Amino acid sequence: MTPAPFSTQLKHFMDTIDCSASELSEASSLSSSVISRYLSGLREPFFDSLHINALAEGLAQLASSRSDLSPDDFSKRAIADSLARSITGLENTYSDFLDNLRSVISALDISNVSIAKALNYDASYVSRLLSGARRPSHLPDFIEKITSWLAQHCDQPYQIRTLAALLKIEERQLLALEDRKAQLIHFLTTNTGDNAAPAQTFVDMINSFDFDAFVKEIDYDTLKVPKAPFMRRFSKVYSGLEPMKQADLDWLKGTVLSRADDDVIIFSDMPISEMGTDEEFVKKYSLGLALMLKRGLTVHMIHDVHRPLEEMVLGLKSYIPMYMTGQIRPYYFPSPTAGTFHHLLKVSGSAALEGTVIDGHQLEDRYYLTSKEADLPFYRAKAAHLLGCARPLMHIFLGKDFPALQAYLRHPSKQKGELLTMDYGHSHITLRKGNYVLVSKEKSPVIHFCIELPQMVRAFEALF
Fold it and tell me: Which of 79, 101, 84, 81 is nearest to 92 (CA)?
């Protein structure tokens, strides 16, 4: 049976002993304002707090003057144990705690089975806990267990980087085991962030995006795709930040100028902070992508989703104009790929760019670009295998694709989960809980985003 809330349990002892707040304040040496906050439920001590002992000692002392009360039931130890069992250990709500825990588990890509095995729970029990169908019988014990294990489990550089971004702290604050545990406890039990924020950000970007203005800004309608009468086959190695940027642009150039019409496959989990701050490079790269799409090429883009959801959603912003063409198909890997090594692979019908760098030393490594006929079959096969390991992040349907959208929604796998709908600005949102979310922008140009990424589906569930 779940213990009563701390304030209720404290009131029960005081009513049974028949003592006032001022009497308990004097007996426990705690201020009357502290006692008042505990009784109102506005605050509660942490489960290993000295306040628990002070309250228990004061209540036991007051109970000792009552001959009709059992000394065993009202001993300092018995009262302290009872009060401790009633503490949640939370400064936020249980709903906030659960959302925070899901965010950590999702960001670190931890399965329910792994948690169950580590904590010696049944896997179905863990699923019910995370869904909110069950609560731990003693939440402080569960917090202690889960944070201890998470702190031990999360010891790789890429995990620490991911966790630091989620908790909005510096990586150095998570290097020591005890520091990781303390930061996890603080985040789980105090964070009251808006869990629907990433969903709102995504829909706001869709609603506010002006496709006509974008087309006018880059002259997309009049954009001419250059053609080279003859492409020289070559291979080249690039080392250092600026040459690596040039490698990306040279790959785009080789793809755009070629007459090959093979689908393009792009994946990278490389750190992008240095490149992302170079506005000139970003502008040239975006133009290259636009030219590639103007050529009519289909792009399979595998996104790195194993980072904080808000960061990932903002990272998608630069691709929204490209999504409007219907030629980009986004994917993701269920498990994280970044760690000691980061990878990049971009393959078209005419050029392949590959890079593998060591974490923290990316400026010392190299990219390899090739357009040689002897190399391309190898890289095309490699990219195809990579794509085969990915899952669709979302399916994108333009207005003309409405029959395909209807077929997608009628599939038996898309009938599972509670159906919820709402209007949000210029968009209509259809959600199947635990399954998918459909964001439909009805204002021209009409476009529908069917999102299956679990983290995003949960964020949209928080909107309802």
Answer: 101
**Chain segment 209-242, per-residue pLDDT in tens:** 665 666 566 565 565 666 655 567 789 999 888 8
Q: CB count, 10 Å around CB of 69?
A: 15
CA 121 to chain centre: 25
Tally of CA atoms within 13 A in the half-sphere of 286 that contains its CB: 22
Domains and CATH numbers, the chain: 6-85 (1.10.260), 94-190 (1.10.260), 224-392 (3.30.870.10)
- Amino acid symbol at 334: P
Between the alpha carbon of residue 216 and those of residues 204, 223, 267, 426, 441, the distances in Å are: 21, 10, 29, 22, 20
Q: Describe the strand order of the beta sheet including 394-398 as a list of residue ranges.
A: 394-398, 447-451, 436-441, 427-432, 419-424
Coil, helix or strand at residue 397: strand
5 secondary structure, DSSP code: P
Give the span between the Cα atoms of 33 and 21, in whole angstroms: 10
Strands 264-268 and 299-303, bridge-based pairing: parallel
Dihedral sign from CA coordinates of 195, 198, 202, 205: positive
Instruction: Tell me the pLDDT tens digit for each residue of 142-180.
Output: 888 999 999 999 998 888 888 887 888 888 999 999 899
Task: Answer for the pair 189, 89: CB distance below 8 angstroms, yes or no.
Answer: yes
pTM exceeds 0.90, yes or no: no
* Tokens read off for 124: 């179905």
